[in-house]
Amino acid sequence: MRIVIVGCGRVGSRVAAELASEGHQVSVVDQRQEAFRRLPERFPGQLVLGTGIDEDVLRSAGIESADVFIAVTEDDNTNIMAAQIAQVIYRVPKVILRIYDPERAEVYRRLGLTVICPTRTVADLIGEHVREGRPLGVSG
Amino acid sequence: MYVIVVGGGKVGYYLTKTLVNEGYEVFLIEKNPAKVHVCRERFGAIVMQGDGAEVATLAAAGAGRADVVIAVTGDDEDNLVICQMARERFGVRRTIARVNNPKNEELFRKLGIDVTVSHTNVILSIIEQQIPERPFVHLLALRHADLAIVEAKVAPDSPVIDQPIWQLQLPPEVIITAILRRGELIIPTGQTVIEPGDELIIVTKQRREAELRELITGPAL
């Protein structure tokens, strides 16, 4: 599959490395050159320097033929805008984004985006563990 | 009418000032405490510190009863989300976003923002109207109707010279509504013959503009 990832932070770089090692064609967009240092040596994917909310940047990352689009920058609103460009303009079949703010996550989930809200997920896990002693089941 | 302005930079400051003077009920939200301080000195209690994309902030500002939310921060992604949150969470009917990158105007429209304001495009259109040599000038775009009013100056080598309007191969959905000739306004008929130097005022569907331009100014070089 052709996969575009916006944001080369801890999550973005890790997802990029894993998917690329499985043989997918991955391009990673970040506006800071240093961010690409998080990727493994000999990372086989494409690196694109620029902001993920600029269509020219996204096109050079191959959004037009992407099967999957992942927006995981540190900024909720950047992720939301990038994801909507992918969904509405380029009709990428699978669009996944991270939104820290649970309220915003709820609104955009309702609008049809695949939203991951780590705040909510982590809070729920901790809550379950404390209340029911359920094992956290988180590795690494 | 209750208006919430998000973004207390120069645009937000003067917008708030103008709206207050016009008698609107206005509330201003700004994230940066230093800017909040400046705005409070001028506007007092109608200024609040907070992130306008957050539900709690919008709720505290009374977004539920707002008639309009105007997002004028310097970041397009913030303006987009502020408007969408206002509409989706609080049912605000009318949302207006400032667009810093003119390329985002179309995207915002597709995403349901009612009005976008791009200072880059505004300045561009002012420049176009001020420069008389340009053969094809955009006077007005009526976005929801996909309609544009353009002014075309007929150059001495234009392919349409000496032809009556009925003979022109005008694209469909295009009409020449007026001609300015030597300072005089002519309402043309099919028999009116185009002369060099004529300024044609044309109503056109936006998607026909390229064909129209080519007809009047000749094929692009």
Indicate the CATH class of the largest domain in chain B: Alpha Beta
- In which order are the strands of the major sheet of chain A placed? 3-2-1-4-5-6
Helix tally of chain A equals 5
Please give the CATH architecture of the largest domain in chain B. Answer: 3-Layer(aba) Sandwich
> Helix fraction of chain B?
25-40%
By CATH, the architecture of chain A is named 3-Layer(aba) Sandwich
Helix content of chain A: 40-55%
Q: Can you write the helix and strand succession of chain B as a string? A: EHEHEHEHEHEHEEEEEH
Extended strand count of chain A = 6
Number of helices of chain B: 7
**C-alpha end-to-end distance of chain B:** 52 Å
Concise description?
Chain A has 140 residues and is of the alpha/beta class. Chain A has helices spanning 10-21, 55-60, 76-89, 102-110, 118-132, and strands spanning 2-6, 25-30, 46-49, 68-71, 94-98, 114-116.
Which features does this protein show?
heterodimer, A: 140 residues, alpha/beta, Rossmann fold, 6-stranded parallel sheet, B: 221 residues, Alpha-Beta Plaits, 5-stranded antiparallel sheet, 11 strands, 33% helix
Explained architecture:
The complex is a heterodimer of chains A (140) and B (221). Helix content of chain A is 40%, strand content 19%. Chain A has five helices and six strands. Chain A has helices at residues 10-21, 55-60, 76-89, 102-110, 118-132, and strands at 2-6, 25-30, 46-49, 68-71, 94-98, 114-116. The mean pLDDT of chain A is 94. Chain B is an alpha/beta fold and 221 residues long. Chain B folds into two domains: 2-120, 3-Layer(aba) Sandwich (Rossmann fold); 128-217, Alpha-Beta Plaits (2-Layer Sandwich), CATH 3.30.70.1450. Chain B is built from seven helices and eleven strands. Chain B is elongated. The chains are: A alpha/beta (140), B alpha/beta (221). Chain A binds chain B through residues 53-55, 75-78, 80-81, 84-85, 88-89, 101, 103-104, 107, 110-111, and chain B through 53-56, 75-78, 80-81, 84-85, 88-89, 101, 103-104, 107, 110-111.
